[in-house]
Amino acid sequence: MKRILPAALVAAAAGLALSGCGAAGCSSSPADIQPQSSACSVAPGTTTATINVNICQKCTDTSPGCQAEFVSGTGLELGPTVQQCSDQAGCPVQGCNSNSTVACTVTFPSSTASYPIVIVGSTSTPSSATLTFDGSGSSCTL
Asked: What's the rounded Cα separation, in Å, for the pair 100 and 55?
C-alpha cells in the first residue's frame, strides 16, 4: 500500500504537467478582445446561452476561457481570459497569431427583452453590446 500512493502522486503530477502550460508557470490574463458585432440575439425563453466573443490570440496565450457575471447597474459582464505562459515568453508578440472565439456560458435570471453586455478585455476601454431574446437558437457571436 505504501508503494501505490507515491506512484499515484507521480502519475497525477505528470498529468498536470501535460495539461495547459505544464511546469513553466502560467498566469491568467484578460484576453485581447476583437468584437465584430454589438448585437447578439437568442431565442425567446432561453435560460442558458453561449455568447462567443472574438479574441486576438497571441503566441503567449493558451487555454482561452471566460468569466461571466451579472453586475448590478451594468448588466451582463463578460471577461474573456487566456493563460500566459513563461515558457512562451520568447515568441514574437506582434499582432494576432490567430483569431479565435471564447465561449461564455451564461444562465439568465429571466428572459427579458434585452440585457446590456460589457466585454472587459486587455485594453482599458471595454466593449459594449446588447443581448436580445428575439432570435433563434441558444448561442450568438460578438
From this structure: 6
Q: Which residues of 76-95 are buried (b: 16+ CB within 10 A; e: fewer)?
A: bbbbbbbbbbeebeeeeeee
In one-letter notation, the amino acid at residue 20 is: G
Which residue has cell 484578460?
30
Show the cell assigned to 132.
Answer: 436580445
Separation CA 139–CA 40 (nearest Å): 8
Interior CA angle at 17 toward 25 and 29, to 5°?
35
- Between 68 and 17, where is the model more confident? 68
pLDDT tens digits along 105-136: 998 877 667 889 999 988 778 899 999 998 88
Q: Which segment of 16-20, 22-26, 87-91, 132-136 scores lowest on mean pLDDT?
A: 16-20
